[in-house]
Amino acid sequence: MRKVLVPLAVLAFAVAPAFAAGEAEPEVESITVSVPWAGDELDTFMPVVEAFEDQHDAQVNVVTQRAEDLVEVLPAQFAAETSAADVIMMWEWWISENGEHIMNKNDLWERYEDDMVSPPIVDAAGDVRGVSVSMNLKPGFWYRQSFFEEHGLSEPDTHEEFVQLLDDIQQIDGVEAAIGSGNGVGWPLTDIVEHFIINYGGPELQLDLIEGNVGWVGTEAEDMFREQLVPLLEAGYFSDPVDFTEMIELWWDGDYGLYPIASFITGVVDDPDDLGVFALPGQRAVVQAPDSFFIPEYTDNPELAREFLDFVLSEEGQAVRAEGGDRMVPSTAVPDDAYPPAMREVASLAAEMETLVPDLDDEIGGDWQSTFWDQLTLLWVEPGAIDDVLETIDAMDVE
Predict the structure, then answer these.
(1) Residue-wise pLDDT tens digits, 105-158
(2) Each residue of 170-184: b (16+ CB within 10 Å) or e?
(3) More exposed terminus of the chain, fewer Cβ within 10 Å: N or C?
(4) Domain 10-135+290-339: which CATH class?
(5) 93 vs 186: CA distance, rounded Å
(6) Model pLDDT, residue 337
(7) Pair 190, 358: CB distance under 8 Å
C-alpha cells in the first residue's frame, strides 16, 4: 500500500489585517514549500520564509515531509499531473532522474552560478532541474568543550592519539561508550563510514565508489573497514545505534564523549558555543550534503515559486539562511561573519581541506542506498558480519 502524504507541520506566518464589516479580505498569493525539517531545524529556515513574505506580500505554507516518504508519493502525484507542494526539497539523484516532471531552471542558475560552490542538479540533457540552497557539512567528531575541559581531554593530532582519546573517554565514570552512534532510517551511520573512507582512502576513493569505478571487496574500501573501522567497533568504542535525535540528548548529557554527525547539530543543541569539532587526523576533504530544491511542472503558482527560489539563492536570502546557524550556504558572496560562532568553526575546518566531496549514499541513491543503510546497521551490532556486509553492498549495482 502506498504511503499517504500527510504533512507533519503546516506553518503559515501571514497575519490577516482587520477589515470593515462586509469588506472582502484581499486575496494573498500563496505557495507551499516542502522540507524535511521539523523543530529546531525548521526554526532556522523560517526567517528566510518570513523575509520573502515581507518583500512579496505573499504567504508561504511550509510542510514537513521526509524524502523517504516523498520517494513513494511523488511518482503517483506526478503521474496524475498534480503536486502537493510548489517547491520541494529532495535527494539530488531523484531530481536528476525525474527531470521530465520538473521545471527548467537554467536562467535562474545562470544568475547565481559564479558565486556557488555547489553544482546544480541536471538531467540527462544537461538542463538544470534542481539547485542547492544550503548544505550540511560532515566535518567529523563533535564534542562539548566543557566535557573535554572537565576531563583533561584534547583533540588528537595522529591516529594513535585518536585511539588513545577513545580509550580515555571510555574510562570516564558514567560514559556508556566513547562515540555515540546516531541512527534512524540508517543515514547517520553513513556519515561515520564516509569520514573513514575519505581519511584512509582519500577523497578519490569516495568519488570512485560513487561512480562505481571500484567495489567494496578486495579494494581500499575493504581495507578501511577491516583495518580501521571494524577494530573500533569490536573494541566497543562505538555505541549501538540509537535514533539520532535521542542520541543528541544522551551525548549532550555526557553518556557519550563524541558524536559524529552533520553540521545541523549547531542549530539544535542548547549551547552551540560549547561545541567543538575535529576531523580524523590527516583528513583531506569533507562531505557536503546539499539541501536541493526543485519546482514541479504541476505547481499552481509557477511565478511565485520561482520568485521564492530566486530569493533563497540571492545574497540576501543566503545571508539570512547563514544566520540561522545550522547550515552553511553555497554562496561565496556571504562572508564568514554572517554565521554564528559554532558554524564559523565548521567553515574554518572546511577551509583547511583540499576539497568538498559529495555525500556517497545520497549521490548513488535508489535501492543501493537503502541496502547500504541496512548493512551498516547490521555491522554496528554485529561487527563479525563484515564478510556478508561487504559482499551484499558489493553485489548492488551502482546506477
Answers:
(1) 999 999 999 999 888 999 989 999 999 999 888 989 999 999 999 999 999 999
(2) beeeebbbbbbbbbb
(3) N
(4) alpha beta
(5) 18
(6) 87
(7) no
